[in-house]
Every structure is written in structure tokens, then in C-alpha cells.
Amino acid sequence: MVKVFVCGDIVNYENHSGLVCSDALAEIISNADYSICNFEAPIEGIGQPVPKSGIHHFQRKATIEGLKVQGFDLLCLANNHIMDFGPDALQATIDEAKRHHLETIGAGIDFHSAYQPIIKKFEDVTIGFINACEAQFGVLDNHANQSQPGYAWLNHHFLDLQILKLKEECDYVIVLAHAGLEHYSIPQKEWRLKYKHLCDLGADIIIGSHPHVPQGYELYNQSVIFYSLGNFYFDSKNFKHKEDNTYSVLLNMTKENINFELIYHHKENGKVHLSPKEKQINITELNEKLENGYNKLVDEMSLQVFNKIIKHNLIYSLGDTPYNGSFISTVKHIIATILGRRSKVDKDLLSLHLLRNETYYYAAKHALQLKANEKHGRRSS
Whole-model pTM above 0.70? Predict the structure, then answer.
């Protein structure tokens, strides 16, 4: 039997040793035949912040060595922060991983290396891995050239072709996806359908990250989809003091079948620990959200994200004044700018972020459709 451990997002600012989890959790990771994490940002000290909308993340160089010591084998780099400090930082991260005998997937110095899958053979079981992310800064989309550095795009047709090819060569195909609305406990319908489409093509397991919180899983035909594993270790400003109660997945794979177990954990005193019963998330409740009232929850989520985030930022980014659609928040923005508490915003980059980001696009389109249906008396489809 082959054991594959997969966990969610890692960004390490504070942990100097790079040893981000407890000994008990590290033992589980080390005992697996292959252990995988999403390495959410490049290592520190290399490159310059690229022009983009939003925060630039980096992490301590020691994180890579620490992950190797604690049993990890593969770093997923297809995410929305891996290009925050440009191609030099990406290359330095890949080089540091190689130095510690860790493999990387999902991003590279050119199109071919970014989209290159990894095939691993364990005894008589062959597994193919693919890693890709939604469209944000750093994506290698339809407009990218073959020599451009960046990360693999989850909606590129080339990804579909790879799954078909891997299915012919491997016993199992695992897609490691980075997409979705942050901080919500259900997936958007568009990503849910996309993942099922990838399963129809031949993916046996889809494992998601990016929302920062756990979401449920479901069986689809002969495949399994885990929509979000949430944060594994994330200690940036917004997450430093959060427990990040969530789970990882331990896949048990034979030539004939797959089963899995969930490893529940939380962050405490600067490390990830196995969670006692009282701290474990309710996975049954998360799974039920995928069935009972799911469409209503998607409607509410889309409207909330559009009204709170997308609409005001889009009005602001496309206008010639500081006005963002709300008089009160506009005044607060002007005051904060005058007092030096808010840096100048590049409106073109903000517009690009809002319009290219597939997650925001899906939410805005659905919210506006709901508003139009309500206004004109039509039922939601």
C-alpha cells in the first residue's frame, strides 16, 4: 500500500527553525511514502516586489529545510503568491528546494517547466501529479509566451490534455488545485463543476487549497474531491493569532483501490499540532453544505462578496476620483491616505486583478444575475 500525505497552505514568517509542526504530526508526514504541501510564497531576500494589487508574501529560507526534515517531499508552487517577488525569487525557491532534495511542481522559468507533471512509481503503483492555480498575478494563461516564467493555470486547455495523457501512463492521477473564494466554507459552483470535469477526464483525486479555511469533500463517480484543506501553517499578520483548525488528507492507495483518512490539526504556539476531539472541525457539517441548501448558500456568498468587496473596488478602480460607491468609506479612504496610513493604489492593476481573477468574476456575474432576476421578477436558474 502506498501512503500519500497532502496538506494545505504554508507561509512562514515567524518560525526561525522552519520546523512548522509538532513531532507527532511530523511522524505521520515522514511515515508516508510521499508528502505534499502548498508552498504559498517564495523564500525571502531575493528579487523585488512585482507590480500587483494586494499583499506581497514571502517566507523564511529555513522553511524549506524544515519541511524536508519533517518529512515533506513535494512543494506545490502553483499559487497566487509564488511570483510576488519575480522570477529570481521563484528560481531561488526552486534551487533551495533542490538543494534539500525536495521536488517542486506547478511553477517554473518557462511554460514547459510550469506545466510539467510529476510521475512517481511506488512498488507496483504509478501516480501522476498535476498542480495548477486560478488566474491571478503570475499566471501563464493564453496570452503567455513559451519562455515566460510563472505558474500553471487551472483553466488552460493544456491541463486537460495532460490529464488524458497521464491517465494512460499512470494507475492514478492527482490534481492539486489552488482556487476559490477565501474564507468561505463552500466551493463556488464553477470550481465544483470544473473539478468534476477534471475527474471526467481521468483525475482520481482532486485536492484544493487557497480559501484558507476547510471545505468539505465528496465522492464523484469513482473519484474523490477535497475542495479545500485550508491553511496548514500560515502566520502572516491576518493569520498569526488564528488556530486554523482544519485537516490534511492521508491517501492509502493500492493497485486496485484508494481509501483515505483525515488528519485533523490546528496551530498553537507557533506550530501545527494534531487536534484533540474538541478542536476537530466538523467535517460532516461541511460535507452536508455541499448537498443541503448548497445553491442558496452559493447565492448568499456571491451577493456578499460582490457587495462587500468587488463592487466598491471596481467602482474605485475604474473612476477618476477616490469615490468607491459609498460616501462614508470614500471619506475614510481619503483621510487614511492624507494621514499616510494607506499607500497609493494603482487603479489599473486593481482593475486587472478584479476582472482577471476568475473567483471574483464568477461571484460578480452570479450576484448581478441574481439582482437582475429579482428586479425583473425572474427566477434564478
Answer: yes
pLDDT band at 330 (very low <50, low <70, confident <90, very high): low
Phi-psi bin for 378: left (phi > 0), alpha (psi -120 to 50), beta? Answer: beta
Specify which residues 135 forms β-bridges with: none
Dihedral, 48, 114, 17, 269 alpha carbons, nearest 10: 100
Average pLDDT rounded to a whole number, residues 42-62: 96
- Find all residues with CB under 8 Å of 332, minimum gap 6, and list them: none
Q: How far apart are CA 61 and CA 77, in angstroms?
A: 15
Report the chain's mean pLDDT, rounded to a whole number. 94
Number of helical H runs and strand E runs in the chain: 12, 17
Is the domain spanning 2-281 CATH 3.60.21.10? The answer is yes
**What sign results for the dihedral spanned by CA atoms 97, 112, 11, 229?**
negative
Per domain, the residue ranges of the chain are 2-281, 294-376
Residue 174 and residue 128 in contact, taking contact as beta carbons nearer than 8 Å: yes
Phi, psi of 264 (to 5 degrees): -85, 135
Q: Which of 84, 146, 94, 91 is nearest to 115 (CA)?
A: 146
Which bin fits 212, alpha (ψ -120 to 50), beta or left (φ > 0)? left
